[in-house]
Amino acid sequence: MVADRQPGEGTGGMIYLDYQATTPLASEAREAMLPYLDQAFGNPHSAHRMGREAKAVVELARERVARPFGDGGQLIFTGGATEALNLAIKGSLAKAPPDRRRIVTIATEHAAVLDTVGWLAGQGADVVVLPVDRQGLVDLDRAATAIDDRTALAAAMLVNNEIGAIQPVGELAALARAKGALFLCDAVQGYGRVPLPDACDLIAISAHKIHGPKGIGALWIRDGVSLEAQIHGGGQEGGLRSGTLAPALCAGFGAAAELASTNFESDRTHVSSLFDQALSRLPGWDVNGAVDRRYRGNLNVRRDGLDVGRLMSDVREVAFSAGSACASGSGRPSHVLKAIGLSDAQARSSIRLGFGRYTTPDDLDRAITLIREAADRQRSLAA
User: Fold this and answer.
1) In the prediction, which pLDDT does 8 show?
2) Theoretical Cys-Cys bridge with 91: which of 81, 219, 227, 334, CB 3.0 to 4.6 Å?
3) Angstrom distance (rounded) from CA 211 to CA 311
C-alpha cells in the first residue's frame, strides 16, 4: 500500500528514484519533530522541567528505534551512520587485546567502513578485505579462513547501497563469534526493509534511509561489548558519544522507525512489485549483482555503451543515480561495480534506480519510459 503522499510532492515535480541516497521525509516524522523545533526546545541533558520533557522524547525515540533489535543491548544516538561505524570500528579495536589486531571486511562495503579500516591499517592494524563474486556476495569459506584467532572485528553490510545484494550476515557473524571476534553489521540500507540478523554485536543505522530526518543515526551495542569513546566532552550517551542530542531529530527518527515497523510487510510487497515492473520494462539491460539475494527496492542496471552522464542530463525529470551519492563527483568508476568484475566502461554505463514507499507504479513507468527513450536516442545517434 502506498502512503497518501502525492506523487512528486516535495521534489519540485521530479520523479524521485534515488531511495538509496535518501528517502522522502514521512509526514508522521515531520509532525513528530515540529514541537521540538518551536516551544519545546529544552536541552534533554538539563535537569529542569523542559529538559526532563525533552529527555522523555529522546528516550521514547530510543525505545522505538531499538525495538527491532529485541531485548537487551544499548542504543547510542549519533550524528549519522558514518559516525556510528567509526565508533564501532575504532572503538572496538581500541579495546581489543594486543594479540587481536585484525579486522576483516568486504570489498563492496561503504566508504565509511573501507576508509576507516584503511586509516587503521596505517596505524598498524592487520586489515583483510575479502573479494566478492559477480553477484556481489562474499565466499563463506574464504571468510572462515580470514576470520581467525587474531581477529578483533569482522564487518559486513547487510544490504549493499549500490547493488542491493544481501550478504550472509548471520553466517558471517557466527564465524566471528566462533573465533571470539566481534561482528559489526552496517544495516543502513537494511533496517526497516529486510529482517535483521540476531547474531550481531554492533549494528549501525541511519534515520534518513527510512523516511526520517538527516543528521541522526544510531549504533546498537550488544550487552557485554565494550567500546572506546571517539568523541569526548560531556559524557552523554553513556559516555560513548559526547554532545547535546537534538530532541527533534530523535523524535523524527523514532516516528520513522515506528512507521517502518508498522509498514514492513506492505513496504516489502510494494517494492517487490515495483522491481518486477521496472525489470520488465528494461529488455536488453543487464542487472548488476544478485537478482534473487537482493533488496528489491534497488535495481542497478547497465546498457553497454551508454553515456550515463549524458543520460542524466537528458532525463532531468527523474532523480536517479550513477552510483553512491556519498562518492559522487569522484570521477572514479564505482568500487562496488569494479569489485563484482565489471570493466571501467561497464561500470560507467550503469545506473541505479531506487524506489520505495512513496513511489507509484505510474511514476516508475513514466520514469523508465523517459530513460529508455533517452538511451535509445543515444544509440541511434552513435550508429
Assistant:
1) 43
2) 227
3) 28
Q: Are 256 and 212 in contact (CB under 8 A)?
A: yes
Beta bridge partners of 220: 75, 203
Give the model confidence (pLDDT) of 199-219 as tens digits: 999 999 999 999 999 999 999
- Structural domains of the chain in order of their starting residue, each with its CATH number: 27-261 (3.40.640.10), 264-382 (3.90.1150.10)
Active site residue 326: yes
What letter does residue 325 receive in the DSSP assignment? G
Q: Residue 54 has which C-alpha cell?
A: 525533552
Can you give the pLDDT at residue 333?
A: 85
Beta strands in 159-294 (DSSP E): 182-186, 202-206, 217-221, 286-287
Surface-to-core class of residue 62, CB atoms within 10 Å of its CB (0-12 exposed, 13-18 middle, 19+ buried): buried
Per DSSP, the residues of 151-196 read EEEEEEESB-TTT-BB--HHHHHHHHHHTT-EEEEE-TTTTTTSPP
> Given a cut of 50, is residue 10 above it in pLDDT?
no
| 53's grid cell | 520533557
